[in-house]
Structure formats: C-alpha cells, structure tokens
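Support request, please re-run this one:
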Amino acid sequence: MNSFNNPIFLLKVLKSYFFEINRLRRLNDEKLRKYQDKRLRKMVKFAYTVPLYHDKYKKEGVHPEDIRGISDINKLPMISKHDFKKYYPDGIVSSKVNKNKLIEITTSGTTGKSLSIYVDMFDIIAGLFGYVRSIREHGIDWRKDKITIIADFAPHTVESGYIHKGIQPRFSSKLFFKNLQWLNTNDPPEKVIEQINKFKPVFIGGYVGMLGHLALLKEKGFGKDISPKVIATTGSPLTNSLKEFLIKSFDATIFQSYGSTESGSIAFECKNGNYHVMSDLVYLEYLKEGRPVESGEAGKILLTKLYGIGTPIIRYDAINDIVAPSKKTCSCGLSGELIDRIYGRDDISLYSPDGRVILPASFGEIFSKVLYELKTNKLKDAIIIQHSLKKIELQVVIDEKQRNIGPSVEKIFSVLRQGLKEKLGKNVEIITKEVKKIDREKPRVIQKLDMKKLKITGYA
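Re-run finished. Output below.
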C-alpha cells in the first residue's frame, strides 16, 4: 500500500511540514531541550523492542524508565557498526514493525566498509524536510524555485533509497516535482553541466568534488545559462579556497550542509555562516578519550537520531567524524546547538610523524588546488596509502582525453607532493604513481600503520 493513501500517515506528513520545518524558529532553547527529552524517551522505549538495543541495554542493566531526558543519555551504551553488522538484518528492526514495509539503505562505503540499515517512509520525509529547512533559510522556495540536486544514485545508497525507492514511486514527478531536477554525481561533469544548463536552476545542491569540477567547466565557458542564486555543498568539508572558487565561478551564495546516511540532515550553515545543528532531529555528543570536549575543541561525535521507526540510531559511534562544538550564539534566530568546525572523518585520515591527525578537511585542500590553481580536472580519481609515518604512496587516475591538455601530469604530481609534505612534514617520502583504475569499493585512504601504537597530539 502506498503510504500516502493512508490518511493517518498523510496527516502526519502535513503536520510535519506545517509545524516541524520551522521548529527551530518557533522554540527557544529551553523548550527545545524539553522536546529533545521527550523524543529521546520515546526513541529509547522504541529501541527496547529492537533485539540489538534490547540485548545491549539488558546487559548494561538499563531500562527505558531510567532515561528521563538528555541528561541521562550517558547511561546508555554506545552502539558500533560491528553491533549493526552482528544483528543485521532482523535484529536491527523492531519486533513491532514489519521489515518488509521498510526501505533498506546502505552507507557510502568511503572506508571500504559499507553498512545497511532500515528506514521508514516518514524517516525519508523528515530527512527531506530537514533539507527544505536549510534551503528555506537561504531564501529558496522548494515548491516554486527550480532546484537541481546532484546525488549519489549508485545502487543501495541513501539517495537511491530516499528518492528511487521512497519518493518517486509514491509521487507523480510531473505533478509534485516538476521544478526539481535529480542528477547523478557519478556521471561525467560534462554531462551534468549540460543537463543543468538546460534546466537553469535557482538552487544547486551537490557533492564538493562534483561542484568543483562544474566550477572549472563554468570558468572554461561551459554552462553559460547556469546562474544559481544559492549552492549547497555536502559530502566533505569545503575548503575556503575552493569556496571562493565556487563563488567566483557561479556568482552565488555558498553554504555547507552536513549529514550522514544513518541520520539524514545533521547541520547546515545559516546566512551568518554559522553551523546550526538540527537539534530537533538529532542530538550530538562530542568526546575525546571518553570525555566531553570544550567549546572549540575537536572531538569524535556520538550520534542520536530523535525520530523514525526504522533502525534506531542511539549513541552511535561509527560516524567517525571529528567535530568541534561551539558555545557561541548566533543572531539569525534559530535555536539549538552550534558547531565550530567539521574536520572530517578520522577513519580516512593521515598521520604525521609528530602525532597530528591530518583529517579530510586538511588534505582536501591539496586536491582542491588542482582545480582552482592548475585549472584542470584531468585528475579523475585518487587513493592514498600510508605505509608508515615516513612514507606515503599516492595513486592517481588521469583522464586520457585530457592528458595533453593544460598542465602536465608531472606538474599535478608536483603540486600534490608539495601539498602533502606541507601537511605531513618535509622528511616524509611521497611516492606518486599513475594507475589505470582504482577500485571504488576500497577506502580512499588505506592505512598500514599500527593504530594502537600511535600517540595522537592533535588534529589538523
């Protein structure tokens, strides 16, 4: 049965649209905390009907009645990716929910280790409404303005689950989404920019890498009719230099959107440039060596999702993002927590001889230079192998069609080597190697270090 033929579900969706999108404007921080307390109680009670959580809570001697709100959240055990894999498939859904009515989605597998979880149709709607909230804050009307979303539509990804399995089969695209254009980030940038040029959107949302390639093509004269007012980036931290390159190429407002497969929307930048957590949808903890960090201090996040009847996400520790919270305030009028900085994932990081963790936000700057300094997108793919603290191997795939156009391959290698040495130290050996193909199922960074022997001194 189509969920939207169910009047109860439809009323729930309408209520969500009219009341929940603006919740961070309607509620002050005190009322928002009460709302979080209520949602956490409900989610913990629901999780107790899920075999994974029931077993973990019982082992820890925790009962749903012990959790009265956010202040009690540390009584709950952390949940790992291993836990999900161990109990998959039937043990990660509630005994009160028909699994066949849920939609299975899979994490991107950036680290080479994908994970499958389940969401319900309202999960999908709430996640999309979170995105609608972020673009509305930047003056975009999703019902009237032309919107282009460049998503990862590879099989089993969250975007495929949300759109191809969830939204599109239940809605008429011509009736409801005639102002929306869905494009695949796995397509060649030349194809993507041609499609955008025909559509002429007011808003473009997409992955940082693809948007960087589109900006370069735009600068070279492609996409003459592309003139968006706003662009939202996602997928990885946006460096300041690449942001300026996007602004210059598109003459648009740029903001970052932060989310995960497991939870959907997590945070976004407001017009003031501050990162606002979707505090009514998720609750974040920031820990370093098991203790909460201070404002501005980097820590690994624990994620709790405050809605849905699919796989519960409560104190989940495998997002692996390093994030610094902020206790500052913002004048934009939104309630909830702020984020100072998103560094990126610590499981796709490099390590310097002096103990610093070089996170994606940092070494992403190196690859961005190929776009905005060398003005080329002939670098199709790359993978980094860290053999030791003193030896890094960089494997890259070059676009054969562009091999003899623009800067030489050796010039690209030189920029990458210099950038990595600046981040890791001048005494680190950087080996650059051209390969024909890279296995996309492998992690982007392959670590051969003994992580247990590393002494971490900080993040960069």
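The mean pLDDT is 90. Residues 29-47 form the longest helix (19 residues).
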